[in-house]
Amino acid sequence: MQMGFLLNIKRHQHYFYISIFLVGLFFVIIGLITSKITDVTEELVVEVIREKHVAQQNALSFEINALDLYMTDVENTFSNGLSSDQLVSRLGLISELTLTNEKIVNSWVMVFQKGELIDKFSSRILGAEEWAGIALEAEALMALTMESTINKIVRTDSSTLERKMIMGKSTKGDVIIFGYDVDLIRFWEYYSQNYSSRGGYNVLFNGDGICMLHPDPKYIGQAIEFYFEEVSIQDVLNNEEGSKGIFPFIQIQAVSEYLGLEVMRYYSVIETNRKHDVIQVASFPIQINIEESLLDTKRYFYWIGLLTLVTFIMILGLSRFQLKREFVKNRVTEKEKEHLKLMNEKYQRENAVLQLRRLKRKMNPHFLFNALNSLIMLIETNPELSQEFVLKLSEVYRYLLKDRQGNLITVKEEMEFLQQYIFLQKIRFSTSLNVSILYEDGGMSMTKSIPLLALETLVENAIKHNEITKTNPLYIEIKVKEDQIVVSNNYNPRAVADSHHLGLEYLKNSYEYYEVSTFRARVVGDQYICCLPLLTV
């Protein structure tokens, strides 16, 4: 025993040598690539920053277009050629819809006839001073000859707004102006909560250089000149050069007034459906991103080193543990073999019981005696029919005595046998026995299987257990369905029972052997019904 254990130790020594080699190779590789990690990391960081820039611009474009959506709806309404009353009614509905957007704080409609204001309403109550300011901007909009919309930053004591206004005309020439205010502080709160700016931050400007979004809200609504000292607003608006298929942008290095760090700054124009100028300035602190990535990379290497050491220790432990495991595995294998042997013996016993029951069914003496009595009577009364009777009887017993593998038979074979069996019983009972067979499966179930003699068993049980007379005949109905065969008969039990239910026990055990639980046999009202599930083997 001890000699075998030592032999196993030698057999597993190669695990030890391989683990030492792998650990040594790992540290050699780390030493070779350490000097190149920083360069690769810088390239990766720049690429990641560009991808972040693209993702952030797409998000900002989506949000700005969502705020401009109502302007598009109003523009489509103006193009329908409606009267003043119709326009006011539809614009009122759009005004109500704007308030479903939490970033929009007010909307209004103004109607001018020959330059004079004749009607106005708003989604919230406005003071005279507020209406006066809106009226001035409306007059400025009407004075424009090339534009029908304006986007303007408006600052009040309590809020900073982006005011959007659009002008249209009714069929009678009345000028109708629709407008709404976007609260830029609310927009900043919404953007900060829903979009992560990890590793950098975004600043938005309109075409006049007024700040619309900034991580520090005190700058919102102001002109921040130092953002456009090296790059002018016109440079950004006129730029058409991109990089690797990305939207056009201008890239510079600058010192962030917000972070107090050197950053990589990207200037680009947000694509909007309304075609008004929105400039995005994205700032990313390169050095911090590189240091974080390097720190992460070093951390990964440390973890890899630790895992390598743990793996080395585990290999040493597992190589010893495997010796014991082989012994336990052999014991488990032996137990499994013993279990399989017992299961096989159990199967053989169950199969033997089924075969014994089949044999009892094959050699049923009552059926043979009754058939011979019927034959004697036929020979005297109808010799020709007696010859057919003998042929049918021989076919029945040839079917019964045929040696088969297993105890299943196809529905087709069982139905053919049943026809012969019913013929013999009809000779005996004449009109007192009525058997009908209905096929409701379209012939689809003929190749499926049922237990051998299942239908004969049920028909014989019906004959055996019920009173059968000319005045009280037995009616048996057999319905062949796609998934089962339903056998039913009128229930008129004899006064004295003469059965030990071997037939039903045989069927029940057969279905249990094939793990089918839908076999049923029961009395329902004045009918005895049995359901034989069809098997697919």
Automatic annotation (TrEMBL):
<dbReference type="Pfam" id="PF06580">
    <property type="entry name" value="His_kinase"/>
</dbReference>
<feature type="transmembrane region" description="Helical">
    <location>
        <begin position="15"/>
        <end position="33"/>
    </location>
</feature>
<dbReference type="InterPro" id="IPR010559">
    <property type="entry name" value="Sig_transdc_His_kin_internal"/>
</dbReference>
<protein>
    <submittedName>
        <fullName>Histidine kinase</fullName>
    </submittedName>
</protein>
<keyword id="KW-0812">Transmembrane</keyword>
<keyword id="KW-0808">Transferase</keyword>
<feature type="domain" description="Signal transduction histidine kinase internal region">
    <location>
        <begin position="355"/>
        <end position="432"/>
    </location>
</feature>
<keyword id="KW-0175">Coiled coil</keyword>
<keyword id="KW-1133">Transmembrane helix</keyword>
<feature type="transmembrane region" description="Helical">
    <location>
        <begin position="300"/>
        <end position="321"/>
    </location>
</feature>
<dbReference type="GO" id="GO:0000155">
    <property type="term" value="F:phosphorelay sensor kinase activity"/>
</dbReference>
<dbReference type="GO" id="GO:0016020">
    <property type="term" value="C:membrane"/>
</dbReference>
<dbReference type="InterPro" id="IPR050640">
    <property type="entry name" value="Bact_2-comp_sensor_kinase"/>
</dbReference>
<keyword id="KW-0472">Membrane</keyword>
<keyword id="KW-0418">Kinase</keyword>
<feature type="coiled-coil region">
    <location>
        <begin position="318"/>
        <end position="362"/>
    </location>
</feature>
